[in-house]
Specification:
The chain is α/β, with parallel strands linked by helices. The protein contains 14 helices and 5 strands.
């Protein structure tokens, strides 16, 4: 009987163990239930297979020559591209400290040797269902990204803006030594920051800086609208303040909440600075593109007038100058 037969493909499971008998037995058990099974006898061999094709689940022996199961688990959980792959650590060790080491390394579940088939199948079913839910959430995020790029495509003058902003924001986040979760939020914020413009009519969206007061009030609603669209996704919790507050000003004259100074979340301040730089460097219906030098002069002057966080503006140009020299 093939489990989960309604899925479009059989789930991929990677079994990592240096004992060939264990690999053979576990592989045959899982294969009998319709899973795609790949095997590796060391941590390094497992990493090569994972880079080639991400599995849906990893069964990982604790004791192996070279890189231990703990080391491999920790490495995978610290990598944003693999941290959501469920890992079951298989061990003959029963000591409480060994299990704590596995928890600290990020293991999702444990199985003790000898493995009982029904317990193995139950653990696998449970974690694959969790992985399926995670994948569905990632698909929802992909849909939001697609919608955001669709908003951008409505205005030919902003083509490529989201991608550039995403790169600028990530680079500046790393330059500021922010943690990886914050850098991921900046990458997502670069794409999603103007998602709320999906509700703005074309005749207003494409009008540039010649909006009437009534039209400007409509335009100012887009950060809050974008935040509300993304709010149900917990994965975007660090991105929500970026979406809502990237149009706030240091002196409190921005929108939608009139925040000032350090009331504006740090990640929103980072994104707004790179957003201004990209806007200056690109042609818009109401202005030609500025040179890098002109953009720096304008932004430093605006920061001095308390529109932007002058420290972040300064760090942006330190970063860009370093990148220019490196290139």
């Amino acid at each position: 009987m093939v489990e989960l037969s309604l899925r479009r493909r059989a789930p991929r499971i990677l079994v990592v163990d240096d004992n060939p008998d264990n690999i053979l037995l576990t592989g045959e058990l899982l294969g009998s239930r319709g899973y795609q099974v790949r095997t590796a006898s060391s941590g390094d061999a497992a990493l090569a297979l994972i880079r080639e094709q991400h599995p849906d689940l990893i069964l990982l022996d604790v004791i192996m020559p070279g890189k231990s199961g703990y080391d491999l688990c920790r490495e995978l959980k610290e990598d944003p591209t693999t941290r959501l792959i469920p890992i079951v650590m298989i061990t003959g060790l029963t000591d409480r400290e060994d299990r704590i080491r596995g928890i600290e390394a990020g293991a999702d579940e444990f199985l003790n040797k000898p493995i009982f088939p029904e317990e193995l199948f139950a653990r696998v079913r449970s974690l694959l269902k969790l992985k399926e839910f995670t994948d569905e959430l990632e698909n929802v995020e992909t849909v939001l990204f697609t919608l955001a790029l669709g908003v951008e495509a409505r205005d030919p003058y902003t083509e490529g803006h989201c991608e550039r902003l995403s790169h600028y924001a990530q680079d500046l986040g790393r330059h500021l030594h922010l943690d990886e979760e914050s850098i991921t939020a900046l990458r997502r914020g670069g794409v999603l920051h103007d998602l709320g413009k999906i509700s703005i009519p074309d005749n207003i969206l494409k009008k540039g800086d010649l909006l009437t007061p009534a039209e400007w009030e409509i335009m100012k609603q887009h950060p809050a609208i974008g935040e509300n669209i993304c709010k149900p996704l917990k994965a975007l919790r660090l991105t929500l303040p970026i979406i809502r507050h990237h149009h706030e000003h240091w002196d409190g004259s921005g929108y939608p909440d009139g925040l000032r100074g350090h009331e504006i979340p740090l990640l929103a301040r980072v994104l707004q600075v790179v957003d201004v730089y990209d806007a200056l460097r690109t042609t818009r219906p109401y202005k030609p593109a500025k040179s890098h030098e002109e953009s720096e002069q304008i932004m430093r002057a605006e920061a001095a007038r308390s529109l932007w966080d002058k420290e972040i503006v300064g760090e942006l140009f330190v970063m860009l100058d370093k990148q220019k020299r490196a290139a």
